Amino acid sequence: MKTIRNLILTLVPIALVACGGGSQPSPSASTPSSSEEKKLNLFCWSEYIPQNVIDGFTRETGIKVAVENYSSNEEMLSKLLAGGGKYDLIQPSEYTIQALIKADQLHPLNQTALPNFVHIAPEFRNMSYDLGNKFSVPYMAGFVGICVNMDKVKTPVKGFLDVFTPAHKGRIVVLDDAREIVSWALEVEKLGLNSVNAENLKKIEPLLKKWLPLVKVYDSDSPKTSLKNGDVDLGVIWSGEAALLYQENKKFAFVLPSEGSHLFVDNLAIPKTSTHPQNAHLFINYILRPEVSKLISDAFPYYNPNLAARKLLSPEQLSNPASYPLAEDITRMETFTDLGKESASVDELVTQIKASGK
Amino acid sequence: MAGTTWLDRRGTQLGCRRAGWSAWLLLAPLLVWLGLFVLLPTILLVVTSFSHRDELGRVVYSFTTENYLRCFDPTWLSIFWNSILYALAATVICVIVGYPAAYTIGRAGPKNRRILLTLVMIPFWTSFLIRTYAWISILSQEGLANSLLLSAHIIPGPLSMMYTPFSIVLGLVYNYLPFMILPIYTSVEKLDNSLVEAAYDLGAGPLRAFSRVIIPLTQPGIAAGALLVFVPAIAMYAITTLMGGGSNPTIGEVIQNQFTRARNQPFGAALGVLLMLLFLVSFLVLGRKKNSSASSA
Amino acid sequence: MIDSAPLTREHFFRLPDGPRLVRWFCGSWTTLVFGFLYLPIILLVLFSFNESKSGFTWEGFTTKWYGELFQNRVLLHAFVNSLLIGLVSTILATVLGTLGAWMLYRYRFPVHRLMEAFIFVPMIMPEILMGVSLLVLFVILSLPLSYLTVIIAHVTFTFPFVLVGMQARLQGMDPSLEEAAMDLGATPRQAFFRVIFPYLMPAIASGALLAFSLSLDDYIVTVFVTGAESQTLPLKVFGMVRVGLNPQLNALSALGIVLTMILVFGSESLKPSNPREKP
After folding, report:
1. What's the CA gap between A280 and A113, in Å, rounded?
2. Closest chain C C-alpha to A204 CA, distance in angstroms
């Protein structure tokens, strides 16, 4: 009967998982073993590390990976700092790494245990938020850019000023991130996207008051939804989302804004409270392998900082303008610095304008 | 008569006895749970609301009232008011939509009653996100509703139904309808048949039978349903963000933001404490009024 | 001449009699309500058979998502966790809510009003506040984050719904019910189980149904109080939005609905019809 079949089919996976899943691997000669117990507590973004990558690691090293997910940097921070969970690996964005380093919350990396680090492209090494890569290794990068539905928008769109025009009133989607929105206004006013202070916020307020009433949807989780559904015609969204849209339908063009915007880099790092740092190093080194990094790119079309892995990608993947924009456009992009307490004033400004602009 | 409280000569509710030690023992689970998992976290929250924060957004335990002073900024007050209005709209519509359905289910045969009741709940055992995205695909510009309306030539061009107050209220009503139907059902189910028949026999048309007899009899269910919808709906943010597109911020979103992007946990805690205080005060005040009117009857 | 009633306009346009009109109106209204409730459900079941991954345009019939679903260990494990946690927390919440409501109704306790107010706190407290404060509490109590902490959290925010529903049922209950039972020789305990409990059954059932669905769908509170093994389905689902909701989820929901309907209709048809039940 269907119920019995379903019941068995749901019980079997539990039994498998309970028994530790997968066959016992024999450690390969190239993977040094660690002296810790064979466990790794991974705290990462949902849908960011493919399951086949994690399973491959377990097969090779025999280390069981316990995965917990979060859907925002701050969620991860809250839980990590409250001390409830003991995590061995986290996946913070670049400005969060900066904040964690400042608060002395990260375990320093042992460079000799990460021989595969050489595969990382030079421009992603030694970045301002973690000089010398003492605490973190880049995982995946992306941009904030403009995605346009070419069927609906016929005029050329090159920068923010082309997006926020009265012609597009009520047809725009933007990220629901006050910091991002403010950084775009700062770039347009040529103040520098990281120069967030009370004076600059006052300067960009009139511009924001012009822009925000034109926006229909604020969405950081899935901005592609409103674009796909035709509820909006263009927007400022993550490059990963635009890449997914492009994969489905080439009518969604992606362009990096002429004024410049955010280059985000998600990294792997080890919290100070980790109980399995050696296993964590093994995992990081494994991720840095070109064939493994390629698997990640296959699953999620972000910008891969691993040069050797990029060589393994298909021409179709590399030709996606949202995944791999032109090199000269990328030079305009900047990473975020940590704002600390100023995040509150940024959030208040945007919420204020949102609430009053009706 | 149902709906009134029976009082004895001393004014205490009939059937309501003084608690002996065995009663305290039976009440213990509730007390312990309330104390440990409701009171303690609330105290933690109040303490947080009076604290500072550091760069990472962590709580620094030094006393300050700045968070509460910030709460009375017009921005936050207007958002507060907005959320209350949405919750009110959702509650009223839920009562109107849900009452006849609850009445039908409650008056159905015993077997059908149980089946229908479970059928009401089954859609809500699917994931909230999938349900909501299904609604988005129905209401969006190139979605199901517009395609049907366009092909039937009812409208000249596609309607923009998503990311409007309409879609927010629809989302709220959809998700909270069972919370209205089920309590009303429990009141309808115990309706004495003879009372209902009597109402009709005395020559009352259906309208009067309902307004004079049936609805007052089911008033506890309606009140419970209204509470179970209104109270959680004020602090709800997932539905309003997904269906509203974020341009109409609600107090739930603002508090959420304080714990995430704005890295200001104490301020979020202060907003939350004020919200709870507002509710608690209204509850205690309204409750006292109800008791005093009952005892004077 | 036969004295017949005059054939006035009223006579022809007379509405059906009261109860029948009410039945007709309520019946059609309820059908519409069920249509409203099930519209997105029908859609998502349909899309579980859709070839397209994004699920907005129909691209062809396929059952491959069901196949993929049964190989998705992570998702299935999360689903089973959700069910387990849901069942346990529903039982606990129902017991707590019923017991609490009865005790508060029956006896006069000194802190009565305050207790009643506090029961509403988990309902009004925004979820993120509850999640964070419970996390801090568990850390202080040195409770490891796992199934236990998730169940505690779920019971805490679901039992008020059970309790309030129960109070509505109790309000205006004829107190002579219990008195009569005791007059006939029953102890208070017997009176409760033989008389009050059956009377409360509909409220218990609806409270349990509400509590279960609240627990199944909770995201924010669970995120903060869960450990790695107790990951529930919503935690996995919320993350999937970034890359597009996988039709495997539709398949899972469709299966869940079918299973539940089979259980419900099956158990109802197996139950012998009770002649003593109120018609």
Report:
1. 10
2. 30
